[in-house]
Amino acid sequence: MTAQHDIAGTAALSICESLLLALNDHKILPEKEIVGILRDAADAHGHASTGSDDDLHTAVAQLINGIIAGGNSVRRP
C-alpha cells in the first residue's frame, strides 16, 4: 500500500469518526445504532474472502473492533 493510500485511509477514518460523533451528539443516531454500524463494517471485513487481501480484511476488522472497544466513535462520560 502506498503512502498516498495510507493518507487517504487515515483521512477517511477521521471523517467517518467525526460524522458518527456528530450524529450521536445531535441525537440523530443513538450509541447502539452507531456501534451496530461499526459491527456491520467489521463483520463485512471479517467474512470477506478475496484471497490475496485476506490479511488486509483481517486488519481492518481488528481496527474497527478496536474502535468499538475504545469508544472512539461515541462520546462516553
Explained architecture:
The chain is mostly helical and about 80 residues long. It has one domain. Helix 2 runs antiparallel to helix 3. The model has no long low-confidence stretch (mean pLDDT about 85). About 10% of the residues are buried. The protein has helices spanning about 5-25, 30-45, 55-70. The protein starts with a helix and ends in a 7-residue tail after the last helix. About 75% of the residues lie in helices and about 0% in strands. The chain is globular, with a radius of gyration of 14 Å.
Topology (elements, then pairings):
Blueprint: H1 3-25, H2 31-46, H3 54-70
- The share of residues in extended strands comes to under 5%
The overall strand count is 0
Number of helices: 3
The rounded distance between the terminal residues' Cα atoms is 37 Å
**Total count of domains:** 1
Q: Which parts are unreliable, with pLDDT below 50 for 5 consecutive residues or more?
A: none
Largest sheet: none
Helix residue percentage: over 70%
Overall SS class: mainly alpha
How large is the radius of gyration?
14 Å
State the order of secondary-structure elements, H for helix, E for strand. Answer: HHH
The gist of it:
The protein has 77 residues and is mainly α. It has three helices and no strands. The protein has one domain (3-70).
Short key terms for the protein model shown above:
about 80 residues; mainly alpha; 3 helices
